[in-house]
Amino acid sequence: MFVYADNAATTAVSPKVVEAMLPYFTEVYGNPSSLYSVGQKAKEVLEESRERIAKLLGASPREIYFTSGGSEADNQAIISAARLGARKGKKHIVSTKFEHHAVLHTLRELEKEGFEITLLDVHENGVIEASQVADAIREDTALVTIMYANNEIGTVQPIAEIGAICKEKGVIFHTDAVQAVSHIHINVKEQNIDMLSISAHKFHGPKGVGVLYARGGIILTNIINGGAQERGKRAGTENLAGIVGMTVALEEAVTHMDENNAKLAKLQDRLIEGLSKIPYSELNGDRENRVKSNVNFCFEGVEGESLLLLLDDKGVAVSSGSACTSGSLDPSHVLLAIGRPHEVAHGSLRVSLGEDATEEQVDYIVKSVAEVIEYLRSFSPFWGDLVSGKRQHIFAEHTVA
Ligand SMILES: *Cc1c(COP(=O)(O)O)cnc(C)c1O
Asked: Global pTM?
Protein backbone atom coordinates (compact mmCIF):
# COMPACT_ATOMS: atom_id res chain seq x y z
CA MET A 1 0.00 0.00 0.00
CA PHE A 2 1.16 3.57 -0.64
CA VAL A 3 -0.26 6.29 1.59
CA TYR A 4 0.69 9.92 1.11
CA ALA A 5 -0.02 11.54 4.47
CA ASP A 6 2.18 14.61 4.31
CA ASN A 7 -0.32 17.13 2.97
CA ALA A 8 0.96 19.85 5.30
CA ALA A 9 4.26 19.69 3.38
CA THR A 10 2.61 19.82 -0.01
CA THR A 11 -0.36 18.34 -1.86
CA ALA A 12 -0.94 16.70 -5.21
CA VAL A 13 -2.35 19.10 -7.81
CA SER A 14 -5.95 18.06 -8.45
CA PRO A 15 -6.83 16.95 -12.01
CA LYS A 16 -9.43 19.72 -12.24
CA VAL A 17 -6.73 22.27 -11.45
CA VAL A 18 -4.32 20.83 -14.02
CA GLU A 19 -7.04 20.94 -16.65
CA ALA A 20 -7.85 24.58 -15.84
CA MET A 21 -4.17 25.52 -16.12
CA LEU A 22 -3.32 23.86 -19.44
CA PRO A 23 -4.67 26.52 -21.86
CA TYR A 24 -2.47 29.12 -20.19
CA PHE A 25 0.69 27.33 -21.25
CA THR A 26 -0.12 26.78 -24.90
CA GLU A 27 -3.03 29.01 -25.97
CA VAL A 28 -3.36 32.08 -23.79
CA TYR A 29 0.38 32.39 -23.25
CA GLY A 30 0.57 36.15 -23.82
CA ASN A 31 2.22 38.50 -21.37
CA PRO A 32 -0.54 40.33 -19.48
CA SER A 33 1.44 43.55 -19.97
CA SER A 34 1.32 43.26 -23.79
CA LEU A 35 -1.22 45.31 -25.71
CA TYR A 36 -2.13 42.83 -28.46
CA SER A 37 -5.10 40.57 -27.93
CA VAL A 38 -3.39 37.41 -26.62
CA GLY A 39 -1.77 39.63 -23.98
CA GLN A 40 -5.02 41.41 -23.19
CA LYS A 41 -6.84 38.10 -22.88
CA ALA A 42 -4.20 37.04 -20.34
CA LYS A 43 -4.68 40.33 -18.49
CA GLU A 44 -8.43 39.74 -18.37
CA VAL A 45 -7.98 36.27 -16.89
CA LEU A 46 -5.46 37.61 -14.39
CA GLU A 47 -7.91 40.25 -13.14
CA GLU A 48 -10.78 37.79 -13.11
CA SER A 49 -8.67 35.45 -10.94
CA ARG A 50 -7.92 38.33 -8.60
CA GLU A 51 -11.65 39.03 -8.24
CA ARG A 52 -12.47 35.38 -7.58
CA ILE A 53 -9.76 35.06 -4.92
CA ALA A 54 -10.76 38.34 -3.29
CA LYS A 55 -14.33 37.11 -3.04
CA LEU A 56 -13.24 33.86 -1.36
CA LEU A 57 -11.34 35.79 1.31
CA GLY A 58 -13.86 38.60 1.83
CA ALA A 59 -11.42 41.13 0.39
CA SER A 60 -11.59 43.51 -2.54
CA PRO A 61 -9.57 42.74 -5.71
CA ARG A 62 -7.25 45.72 -5.19
CA GLU A 63 -6.14 44.15 -1.92
CA ILE A 64 -4.87 40.93 -3.57
CA TYR A 65 -1.21 40.67 -4.63
CA PHE A 66 0.07 37.54 -6.36
CA THR A 67 3.40 36.22 -5.09
CA SER A 68 5.60 33.17 -5.60
CA GLY A 69 4.12 31.49 -2.53
CA GLY A 70 3.72 31.62 1.22
CA SER A 71 7.32 32.47 2.06
CA GLU A 72 7.39 35.51 -0.20
CA ALA A 73 4.01 36.72 1.07
CA ASP A 74 5.19 36.39 4.69
CA ASN A 75 8.42 38.26 3.92
CA GLN A 76 6.66 41.08 2.11
CA ALA A 77 3.92 41.47 4.72
CA ILE A 78 6.34 41.68 7.63
CA ILE A 79 8.89 43.91 5.92
CA SER A 80 6.15 46.27 4.70
CA ALA A 81 4.64 46.66 8.17
CA ALA A 82 8.11 47.13 9.66
CA ARG A 83 8.93 49.93 7.19
CA LEU A 84 5.59 51.65 7.79
CA GLY A 85 6.14 51.45 11.54
CA ALA A 86 9.73 52.66 11.42
CA ARG A 87 8.62 55.86 9.68
CA LYS A 88 6.59 56.68 12.79
CA GLY A 89 9.34 55.56 15.15
CA LYS A 90 7.61 52.25 15.89
CA LYS A 91 10.12 49.43 15.90
CA HIS A 92 8.50 46.70 18.00
CA ILE A 93 6.93 43.53 16.60
CA VAL A 94 4.87 40.86 18.39
CA SER A 95 4.85 37.26 17.17
CA THR A 96 5.05 33.75 18.65
CA LYS A 97 7.73 31.16 19.25
CA PHE A 98 6.15 28.61 16.94
CA GLU A 99 5.76 30.50 13.67
CA HIS A 100 6.95 29.12 10.33
CA HIS A 101 10.57 29.94 9.53
CA ALA A 102 9.42 32.28 6.74
CA VAL A 103 8.18 34.49 9.58
CA LEU A 104 10.79 33.78 12.26
CA HIS A 105 13.78 34.26 9.97
CA THR A 106 12.36 37.50 8.53
CA LEU A 107 11.92 38.78 12.09
CA ARG A 108 15.49 37.78 12.88
CA GLU A 109 16.71 39.92 9.97
CA LEU A 110 14.68 42.89 11.23
CA GLU A 111 16.14 42.39 14.68
CA LYS A 112 19.60 42.94 13.17
CA GLU A 113 18.31 46.28 11.88
CA GLY A 114 17.30 47.36 15.36
CA PHE A 115 13.69 46.13 15.60
CA GLU A 116 12.69 44.66 18.93
CA ILE A 117 10.84 41.36 18.62
CA THR A 118 8.59 39.87 21.31
CA LEU A 119 7.95 36.16 20.71
CA LEU A 120 5.01 35.00 22.78
CA ASP A 121 5.12 31.70 24.64
CA VAL A 122 2.73 29.05 23.44
CA HIS A 123 0.68 27.03 25.92
CA GLU A 124 1.20 23.28 26.19
CA ASN A 125 -1.91 22.71 24.08
CA GLY A 126 -0.34 24.63 21.18
CA VAL A 127 -2.54 27.70 21.46
CA ILE A 128 -1.84 31.29 22.47
CA GLU A 129 -4.46 33.47 24.11
CA ALA A 130 -5.58 36.79 22.70
CA SER A 131 -4.89 38.38 26.10
CA GLN A 132 -1.18 37.57 25.68
CA VAL A 133 -1.22 39.68 22.53
CA ALA A 134 -3.07 42.51 24.26
CA ASP A 135 -0.51 42.49 27.06
CA ALA A 136 2.45 42.51 24.66
CA ILE A 137 1.33 45.45 22.50
CA ARG A 138 3.16 48.71 23.32
CA GLU A 139 3.02 52.30 22.12
CA ASP A 140 5.78 51.51 19.63
CA THR A 141 4.35 48.22 18.27
CA ALA A 142 4.33 48.27 14.47
CA LEU A 143 3.01 44.78 13.77
CA VAL A 144 1.47 41.68 15.26
CA THR A 145 2.11 38.56 13.15
CA ILE A 146 0.56 35.29 14.34
CA MET A 147 -0.09 32.18 12.31
CA TYR A 148 -3.65 30.96 11.85
CA ALA A 149 -2.99 27.21 12.07
CA ASN A 150 0.38 25.76 12.98
CA ASN A 151 2.03 23.72 10.24
CA GLU A 152 3.42 21.03 12.54
CA ILE A 153 0.74 20.45 15.16
CA GLY A 154 -2.28 21.95 13.40
CA THR A 155 -3.51 24.01 16.35
CA VAL A 156 -5.71 26.98 15.54
CA GLN A 157 -5.18 30.42 17.08
CA PRO A 158 -7.96 32.85 18.12
CA ILE A 159 -7.41 35.03 15.06
CA ALA A 160 -10.66 37.04 15.10
CA GLU A 161 -10.11 37.93 18.76
CA ILE A 162 -6.53 38.99 18.07
CA GLY A 163 -7.72 40.95 15.05
CA ALA A 164 -10.20 42.88 17.19
CA ILE A 165 -7.50 43.73 19.74
CA CYS A 166 -5.09 44.94 17.05
CA LYS A 167 -7.79 47.04 15.43
CA GLU A 168 -8.66 48.67 18.75
CA LYS A 169 -4.99 49.42 19.43
CA GLY A 170 -4.26 50.59 15.89
CA VAL A 171 -1.60 47.94 15.21
CA ILE A 172 -1.25 46.17 11.85
CA PHE A 173 -2.18 42.48 12.12
CA HIS A 174 -0.74 39.88 9.75
CA THR A 175 -1.56 36.17 9.81
CA ASP A 176 0.18 33.33 7.98
CA ALA A 177 -2.92 31.41 6.92
CA VAL A 178 -1.10 28.92 4.69
CA GLN A 179 -2.28 25.90 6.73
CA ALA A 180 -5.68 27.34 7.54
CA VAL A 181 -7.28 28.62 4.36
CA SER A 182 -8.50 25.22 3.15
CA HIS A 183 -9.74 24.10 6.58
CA ILE A 184 -11.21 27.21 8.24
CA HIS A 185 -13.61 29.77 6.80
CA ILE A 186 -11.75 33.05 6.55
CA ASN A 187 -13.19 36.49 6.02
CA VAL A 188 -10.51 39.13 6.39
CA LYS A 189 -12.95 41.97 7.05
CA GLU A 190 -15.05 40.15 9.64
CA GLN A 191 -11.94 38.84 11.37
CA ASN A 192 -10.09 42.20 11.25
CA ILE A 193 -7.10 40.76 9.43
CA ASP A 194 -4.94 43.47 7.82
CA MET A 195 -2.56 41.18 5.97
CA LEU A 196 -2.70 37.46 5.20
CA SER A 197 -0.51 34.94 3.37
CA ILE A 198 -1.60 31.82 1.51
CA SER A 199 0.15 29.32 -0.76
CA ALA A 200 -1.49 27.29 -3.54
CA HIS A 201 0.49 24.07 -3.13
CA LYS A 202 -0.96 23.47 0.31
CA PHE A 203 -4.50 23.13 -1.10
CA HIS A 204 -4.04 21.08 -4.30
CA GLY A 205 -2.84 24.00 -6.39
CA PRO A 206 0.57 24.26 -8.06
CA LYS A 207 3.83 25.09 -6.31
CA GLY A 208 5.40 28.52 -6.68
CA VAL A 209 2.31 30.70 -6.40
CA GLY A 210 0.57 32.38 -3.51
CA VAL A 211 -1.26 35.48 -2.37
CA LEU A 212 -0.54 38.36 -0.09
CA TYR A 213 -3.73 40.11 0.94
CA ALA A 214 -3.04 43.64 2.24
CA ARG A 215 -5.90 45.83 3.42
CA GLY A 216 -6.41 48.99 1.37
CA GLY A 217 -4.32 51.79 2.84
CA ILE A 218 -1.39 49.53 3.75
CA ILE A 219 1.45 50.52 1.46
CA LEU A 220 3.59 47.53 0.57
CA THR A 221 7.37 47.60 0.32
CA ASN A 222 8.75 45.91 -2.80
CA ILE A 223 10.82 42.81 -2.19
CA ILE A 224 11.29 42.20 -5.90
CA ASN A 225 12.07 45.33 -7.91
CA GLY A 226 11.52 45.77 -11.63
CA GLY A 227 8.40 46.19 -13.76
CA ALA A 228 5.09 47.64 -12.65
CA GLN A 229 3.18 44.37 -12.19
CA GLU A 230 0.86 44.00 -9.18
CA ARG A 231 0.24 47.72 -9.03
CA GLY A 232 3.95 48.35 -8.83
CA LYS A 233 4.39 46.28 -5.68
CA ARG A 234 5.71 43.00 -7.04
CA ALA A 235 7.75 42.97 -10.24
CA GLY A 236 7.98 40.01 -12.61
CA THR A 237 5.80 38.61 -15.38
CA GLU A 238 2.77 37.04 -13.75
CA ASN A 239 2.61 33.25 -13.36
CA LEU A 240 -0.77 33.16 -15.06
CA ALA A 241 -1.18 29.36 -15.32
CA GLY A 242 -0.25 29.11 -11.65
CA ILE A 243 -2.64 31.88 -10.66
CA VAL A 244 -5.50 30.25 -12.58
CA GLY A 245 -4.68 26.90 -10.93
CA MET A 246 -4.59 28.49 -7.49
CA THR A 247 -7.95 30.17 -8.09
CA VAL A 248 -9.66 26.93 -9.06
CA ALA A 249 -7.98 25.06 -6.19
CA LEU A 250 -9.10 27.64 -3.63
CA GLU A 251 -12.67 27.62 -4.95
CA GLU A 252 -12.72 23.83 -4.68
CA ALA A 253 -11.28 23.91 -1.16
CA VAL A 254 -13.69 26.54 0.13
CA THR A 255 -16.75 25.03 -1.57
CA HIS A 256 -16.10 21.56 -0.17
CA MET A 257 -14.60 22.65 3.15
CA ASP A 258 -17.43 21.60 5.44
CA GLU A 259 -17.90 18.15 3.93
CA ASN A 260 -14.11 17.62 3.83
CA ASN A 261 -13.79 18.62 7.46
CA ALA A 262 -16.61 16.32 8.51
CA LYS A 263 -14.92 13.42 6.76
CA LEU A 264 -11.44 14.28 8.01
CA ALA A 265 -12.67 14.66 11.61
CA LYS A 266 -13.71 11.00 11.64
CA LEU A 267 -10.39 9.86 10.22
CA GLN A 268 -8.55 12.10 12.68
CA ASP A 269 -10.41 10.48 15.60
CA ARG A 270 -9.57 7.03 14.30
CA LEU A 271 -5.91 7.90 13.84
CA ILE A 272 -5.54 9.51 17.26
CA GLU A 273 -7.28 6.59 18.91
CA GLY A 274 -5.03 4.11 17.12
CA LEU A 275 -1.74 5.88 17.80
CA SER A 276 -2.68 6.52 21.45
CA LYS A 277 -2.56 2.75 22.00
CA ILE A 278 1.19 2.76 21.40
CA PRO A 279 2.77 2.76 24.88
CA TYR A 280 4.48 5.96 26.03
CA SER A 281 3.13 8.15 23.30
CA GLU A 282 1.30 11.44 23.47
CA LEU A 283 -0.62 13.67 21.08
CA ASN A 284 0.96 17.07 20.46
CA GLY A 285 -1.40 20.03 20.46
CA ASP A 286 -4.98 20.39 21.56
CA ARG A 287 -7.25 17.41 20.94
CA GLU A 288 -10.13 19.52 19.58
CA ASN A 289 -8.74 22.86 18.53
CA ARG A 290 -6.77 21.74 15.48
CA VAL A 291 -7.28 21.48 11.74
CA LYS A 292 -8.96 18.17 10.97
CA SER A 293 -6.18 16.91 8.72
CA ASN A 294 -3.40 17.05 11.32
CA VAL A 295 -2.27 14.46 13.84
CA ASN A 296 1.11 14.88 15.56
CA PHE A 297 2.52 12.49 18.16
CA CYS A 298 5.63 12.18 20.27
CA PHE A 299 6.95 8.72 21.11
CA GLU A 300 9.49 8.02 23.82
CA GLY A 301 12.64 6.17 22.88
CA VAL A 302 12.49 6.62 19.10
CA GLU A 303 14.19 9.00 16.73
CA GLY A 304 11.85 10.76 14.29
CA GLU A 305 14.20 10.52 11.34
CA SER A 306 14.56 6.72 11.59
CA LEU A 307 10.83 6.43 12.13
CA LEU A 308 9.95 8.22 8.93
CA LEU A 309 12.54 6.40 6.83
CA LEU A 310 11.28 2.99 7.97
CA LEU A 311 7.71 4.11 7.37
CA ASP A 312 8.74 5.11 3.87
CA ASP A 313 9.89 1.50 3.34
CA LYS A 314 6.33 0.46 4.19
CA GLY A 315 4.90 2.95 1.69
CA VAL A 316 3.82 5.54 4.25
CA ALA A 317 4.91 9.14 3.51
CA VAL A 318 4.75 11.22 6.67
CA SER A 319 7.05 13.72 8.32
CA SER A 320 8.93 14.31 11.51
CA GLY A 321 9.31 17.90 12.61
CA SER A 322 8.76 20.12 9.60
CA ALA A 323 10.02 19.54 6.07
CA CYS A 324 12.28 22.55 6.42
CA THR A 325 14.03 21.24 9.52
CA SER A 326 14.25 17.56 8.65
CA GLY A 327 17.74 16.97 7.44
CA SER A 328 19.07 18.75 10.49
CA LEU A 329 19.27 17.10 13.88
CA ASP A 330 17.72 20.01 15.74
CA PRO A 331 14.44 19.11 17.38
CA SER A 332 11.40 20.99 16.14
CA HIS A 333 11.15 24.55 17.49
CA VAL A 334 7.38 24.07 17.59
CA LEU A 335 7.55 21.07 19.92
CA LEU A 336 10.08 22.84 22.13
CA ALA A 337 7.77 25.89 22.20
CA ILE A 338 4.91 23.77 23.60
CA GLY A 339 7.24 22.46 26.28
CA ARG A 340 8.23 19.05 24.97
CA PRO A 341 11.66 18.08 26.31
CA HIS A 342 14.44 17.52 23.73
CA GLU A 343 14.44 13.75 24.08
CA VAL A 344 10.80 13.35 23.03
CA ALA A 345 10.76 16.30 20.63
CA HIS A 346 13.19 14.21 18.55
CA GLY A 347 10.70 11.35 18.38
CA SER A 348 7.83 13.11 16.72
CA LEU A 349 5.60 12.17 13.84
CA ARG A 350 3.29 14.39 11.81
CA VAL A 351 0.53 12.77 9.79
CA SER A 352 -1.39 15.20 7.59
CA LEU A 353 -4.25 13.51 5.79
CA GLY A 354 -5.65 14.45 2.41
CA GLU A 355 -9.37 14.74 1.74
CA ASP A 356 -9.31 11.48 -0.21
CA ALA A 357 -7.86 9.44 2.67
CA THR A 358 -9.69 6.26 3.70
CA GLU A 359 -10.21 4.29 6.90
CA GLU A 360 -8.11 1.47 5.44
CA GLN A 361 -5.23 3.89 4.92
CA VAL A 362 -5.54 5.20 8.46
CA ASP A 363 -5.51 1.66 9.83
CA TYR A 364 -2.46 0.86 7.73
CA ILE A 365 -0.67 3.96 9.08
CA VAL A 366 -1.44 2.95 12.68
CA LYS A 367 -0.29 -0.64 12.13
CA SER A 368 2.90 0.48 10.38
CA VAL A 369 3.79 3.06 13.02
CA ALA A 370 3.23 0.55 15.83
CA GLU A 371 5.47 -2.03 14.11
CA VAL A 372 8.26 0.43 13.35
CA ILE A 373 8.25 1.82 16.87
CA GLU A 374 8.44 -1.62 18.42
CA TYR A 375 11.35 -2.46 16.11
CA LEU A 376 13.23 0.79 16.81
CA ARG A 377 12.77 0.46 20.55
CA SER A 378 14.07 -3.11 20.46
CA PHE A 379 17.63 -1.89 19.96
CA SER A 380 17.51 1.67 21.33
CA PRO A 381 19.90 2.17 24.27
CA PHE A 382 17.71 5.07 25.34
CA TRP A 383 14.65 2.84 25.47
CA GLY A 384 16.73 0.25 27.33
CA ASP A 385 17.44 2.81 30.03
CA LEU A 386 13.74 3.51 30.36
CA VAL A 387 12.88 -0.16 30.63
CA SER A 388 15.60 -0.83 33.21
CA GLY A 389 14.53 2.19 35.24
CA LYS A 390 17.82 4.05 34.77
CA ARG A 391 15.79 6.82 33.22
CA GLN A 392 12.34 8.06 34.14
CA HIS A 393 9.50 7.95 31.64
CA ILE A 394 8.16 11.31 30.56
CA PHE A 395 4.74 10.09 29.46
CA ALA A 396 2.31 7.76 31.16
CA GLU A 397 2.23 4.27 29.65
CA HIS A 398 -1.18 4.99 28.21
CA THR A 399 -2.96 8.26 27.75
CA VAL A 400 -6.64 8.53 27.13
CA ALA A 401 -7.19 10.30 23.84
C1 LIG B 1 4.35 25.87 3.58
C2 LIG B 1 4.25 27.03 4.50
C3 LIG B 1 4.83 28.27 4.19
C4 LIG B 1 5.67 28.46 2.95
O5 LIG B 1 4.93 28.47 1.78
P6 LIG B 1 5.69 28.26 0.39
O7 LIG B 1 4.64 28.52 -0.63
O8 LIG B 1 6.19 26.86 0.39
O9 LIG B 1 6.78 29.27 0.34
C10 LIG B 1 4.65 29.32 5.06
N11 LIG B 1 3.94 29.16 6.19
C12 LIG B 1 3.37 28.00 6.53
C13 LIG B 1 2.57 27.92 7.79
C14 LIG B 1 3.51 26.89 5.70
O15 LIG B 1 2.96 25.73 6.05
From this structure: 0.97
